[in-house]
Amino acid sequence: MSVKKQVSDNQKSVEISIDGRFDFSLHQYFRDAYVNCTENGQTFTLNLATTSYMDSSALGMILLLKDHAESHAGKIIITKPSDSVNKILEIAQFHRLLTIEQ
Amino acid sequence: MTTFSEKRNIKLALVVDDSLMQCKVLSVLLKEEGYRVFTANDGARGVAMYIKYKPDLVLMDINMPIMNGYEAARKIKGLSQDNSLCPLIFITSMDTDQAFIESIDAGGDGILVRPFSPNVFKAKIKSIQRISDLYGQVKTLQQAQQKDAELAEQLMSGVIEARNFSRDRIGIIRQAAELFSGDIQLTALAPNGDVNVMLGDFTGHGLRSSIGAIPLAETFRAMTKKGFSLFEIITQINHQLYDLLPADLFLAAGFVSISTHNTSMYGFNAGLPDGYLFSELGDIKYQLSSSHPPLGVLPSLLPDSQLTVISIADTDRMILISDGIVEARNEEGEMFEFPRFEEAAKQGVIEGDVSRRVQEIVNSFCKGMPQEDDISLIDIPCGGWEQVLVGSHDYERFPDKLLSDISIETPPAWHWQLSLSGKRLGLLNPIPMAMSQINEIEGHADHWQSLYTILTELFINSLDHGVLGLSSELKASAEGFAEYFKEREHRLRNLNEGFVELQLSHHPVPNGGRVIIKIKDSGQGFDITNYYKNRSAEASPKLKFSGRGIDLVEQLCDSLDYQENGTVVEASYVWTT
Predict the structure, then answer these.
(1) Which fold has domain A3-101?
(2) Residues 6 or more apart from B93 whose CB is under 8 A from it?
């Protein structure tokens, strides 16, 4: 499956990685990856290292994850977007809404 | 004989078998399951019966005279492309892989190998009927959805886009990925003659993505018409969409306001690819890059948000696009990308038809590949709006007879005034308030548009030159022009003192009236005699960057006077019906 999830031993950080195209077809899998992580103060890392393409519904899904994280006193970090994915994040000015690490 | 297709309380089954014995056995079992049964003894007759009765289920033997079961199945499946899936089951004694594979290839939905017990047969019929019912439900839902989408599409093109301003001069591409586009293009005319344009791209596409379209269009049009500034409109749209839409639905949007009598353009890009300002030769003069997250994401705009002011020439063209164009893919999976778009747009600008040229080039690049996202573009000419607007403005002078009839000695029918000072002056725009007073008291009418222009020009002059102390000399060059607006923005933000006082009074007569506008500001004033001397010395007022506002006001008013060292201006506007 192209959505992978990894939770650290102390439950404090959750890494979700997306392989290939990140679009509406992943909606349910993406939601399933975080919806049960309801512990307070978790850091959600969205690893986009192997994401080849992202559409605007993916941006919407990221905002839903952000809402989820913030409602549990947590935060979200996007890591390693490729150049083409970063371009999409940049056009949407997402660096002004959340942390993006190269 | 009537067909049975309308009476679907009893299900119909068709048994096609050359053995009368087999037909009899299967008929009995089917009748026990509540079916009404027809039989045929060869493939050709089976097809004819299928056409006549439109059954809910077909049982088909394989080896038959005249037309065998495979051929009959192919014919039947070729006919049933409408709403219902009519399941077809092969009944055979050939227990081979080959028979199974061929049955499915011929369009069969299952195969039942003899011998089987009556209970196994009935179980098979039940299971296949269950699938067929499910298929029917999905079809019905899909049709309902299609109908909704068609209605929405009608609403969108009929109600929203048909009301766009100047559809003949502003070029638009709107090619939806699905029936219903998540992209929206709006154009509207402001009372002062500015042309406001928006291209928006809602998250995703299809019906879901367009629920925000109608309130968006209403806000954009109503606020433009009332004379709110582009920035006020964007602020309100953002707020409205944030309230209205769920967290994962938002609007990437580009806004442009062409102000012909300022020879400038105001722009704002929230999440769209770069917008392009082209010269008539096809050179890129400016790229309007995204400077803000899409609208509807944040409860209010980021604090440092502001419009970009760009100086334009009459022959320039401004082009906004959505990401569907640059991300359109060809057979090899390659994207169209910006360089190809820029080249296509350049060709279009030179030829004078951007939307057609770009659409042609994108479509020939994609060569009929299924379109993944909405493709849209707006191409706005930066000049030539005066000719379009003259028709809508009333520039005619009034007969002297009428003027003398309207004496300001008579007491006004009403008097309205508003004084704004300090911070409030930097935040509020009093013109829409004044206009809504007039519209409430006197009713809506076209001639109030001229009054709007007069009020706006005089108020801006009092605010800019009086309270903020900006010199219009700054606006002498194109570079200074941008500088002027930057400085204006800065001073407005830090405004703590000063005032502007606005007074309106109306002296009506039958079929007309006179509105007296008086505006006073806290500024230093200016040398009035010197001002008039300089103005008459100007050879060609068309060529300068400033002072056009006052020219316009003088055309619209029957008198315009500066008093008290230029800190007070009094204008008189006469209207007739």
Answers:
(1) Transcription Regulator spoIIAA (3.30.750)
(2) B113, B114, B115
